[in-house]
Design a protein that fits this description.
By secondary structure, the protein is α/β, with parallel strands linked by helices. It is built from 22 helices and ten strands.
Length: 479
């Protein structure tokens, strides 16, 4: 089977291909409508804005003290018997995990869901070293069988419908072709259970790392996270450095926001709190627990007082579920680990703006992502910031920023900005533009490479309203 490769610098082509695929559009539209409805219903009896404010403050407080909290987390984890490792980038993190596996002569790894491991391409690194790595989250498992990457950070296989999943399970695992979801789920569970029992190492992500107690919190629905972290003799947790929170009490409101924003659930099926390896007298649990803290560009984000807000993210995916662009083109079109609005502001920091400069434009700036974000990340403001940096304006702090507009185009936009802030001149100018609309150029530089050049209307909206009021007044006078 030929595997399609998606890259961020080909976003526009990939988006057009997705728009021309009715199956992808139908799959996403149905799924997103359901998720939006469930989220709305789950917050029906809650003071949502107060809870969002609390969640935002918890994340901001943790980020304000991030260096200190990371050191405190390390000390308390080590006191609990968890060995802590620091990785400057994804390559170093992969190497650390590979060395931990090799130290135990491990040949097989079972993985729980972890977007950071996707970000650093851990599976490919382990496979190259002769260590098999199998995803145990059902969505991730299906995507891996189909030789794809996740298209959503919460629901990796959301781009697939039942018939497509049935085909994958039949072709890749040999089960009889069926559309019965329970039958397919049971078959996958049986296959994965054998791999859990045989795995040498379990690898998981972390939703919240509690500095106060040295506790690693893992949120999941299927039980694979609990199996991954308890059955193999070694458990390796991997997470970005921003996932730390200060107090154990901070987890409850973030958990409430995460589950409701992600899938519309009041609680998930499993909430795991990992505080160390198996102790004397205990009958289960791993012999070793390791925590790998990954930077991979996050410290650079941390040094920017505006882009710092990106690190608040709790990976719920609500911004994707409500984004009119994402819901039409899907996650693969972005060509990055993190798609959708959050990916459009995060990936330029992780991969550089030069190769991801199209992602901040993958938005209508409708503001839906900012309105639903449970920790109130101002995503639209950050998208605008990155758009400016992509064309050489603004602070230029993002790696790879600095592309330049032509002087003519820049002058045109500056003129438009000035005119739009002077109402009298704006009305006169738009009236004149309507009379001269036949002279409007069809090409306005790079801006029209993917857009139709605007053409002034014959009559402005204000003019139409005046005409309508005049007609009504005449009709009333005649009556």
């Amino acid at each position: 089977m030929s595997v399609q490769t998606f890259t961020p610098d080909a976003f526009h082509r990939q988006a057009h291909e997705a728009l021309e695929n009715p199956q992808i559009r139908a799959n996403f539209r149905q799924a997103m409508d359901g998720l939006m409805s469930k989220r709305r219903d789950s917050f029906a009896d809650w003071d949502l804005e107060t809870l969002r404010e609390l969640g935002a403050n918890i994340r901001l407080r943790a980020l304000a003290r991030l260096p200190d909290l990371l050191e405190r987390l390390e000390a308390n984890c080590q006191a609990n018997g968890i060995r802590v490792h620091w990785a400057e980038d994804g390559e170093q993190a992969c190497r650390l995990i590979r060395e931990l596996c090799e130290a135990r002569e491990a040949r097989s790894v079972i993985k729980g869901k972890s977007m950071v491991s996707e970000e650093m391409h851990l599976n490919a690194h382990l496979e190259a070293a002769g260590i098999s790595a199998l995803e145990s989250d059902l969505g991730e498992y299906l995507v891996q069988l189909n030789e794809q990457t996740p298209s959503h950070i919460i629901m990796p296989a959301i781009h697939l419908n039942t018939d497509e999943i049935a085909g994958i399970m039949h072709d890749k695992t040999g089960i009889a072709r069926t559309r019965d979801v329970d039958t397919m789920t049971a078959a996958a569970r049986l296959q994965l259970r054998e791999r859990f029992m045989a795995a040498d190492v379990g690898v998981s992500g972390v939703n919240f790392a509690v500095a106060e107690t040295g506790t690693l919190c893992l949120v999941e629905n299927e039980g694979n996270g609990r199996m991954t972290t308890t059955v193999p003799p070694v458990h390796i947790a991997v997470t970005g450095i921003e996932k730390v929170v200060e107090h154990l009490r901070d987890v409850a409101p973030l958990y409430s926001l995460l589950t409701r924003s992600a899938t519309g659930q009041h609680v998930t099926t499993y909430f795991n709190m990992i505080s160390g390896p198996r102790r004397a007298g205990e009958h289960d649990g791993p012999e070793e627990v390791h925590l790998v803290l990954v930077d991979n560009g996050r410290s650079g984000i941390y040094q920017d007082d505006q882009l710092l807000d990106t690190l608040r993210c709790i990976r719920c995916g609500a911004c994707m579920n409500h984004c009119p662009v994402y819901t039409r083109v899907g996650g693969h079109s972005y060509g990055t680990t993190y798609p959708g609005p959050i990916g459009s502001i995060l990936m330029p920091h992780l991969e550089g703006l030069e190769s991801t400069k199209d992602l901040p434009t993958a938005s209508s700036l409708c503001g839906a992502c900012g309105e639903v974000c449970p920790v109130k990340i101002p995503i639209p403001d950050l998208l605008v910031r990155l758009r400016r940096e992509a064309v050489g304006e603004g602070r230029g702090n993002v790696r790879g920023a600095g592309a330049k507009r032509s002087r003519k185009e820049l002058a045109a936009w500056k003129g438009w900005q000035w005119l739009a802030t002077h109402p009298g001149l704006w009305r006169s100018g738009t009236a004149m533009a309507g009379r001269l609309r036949g002279l409007t150029p069809t090409h306005l530089g790079p801006w029209t490479d993917y857009r139709t050049a605007p053409k002034p209307a014959k009559t402005t909206l204000h003019g139409l309203l005046k005409q309508r009021r005049a007609r009504r007044a005449a009709e009333e006078q005649d009556a």
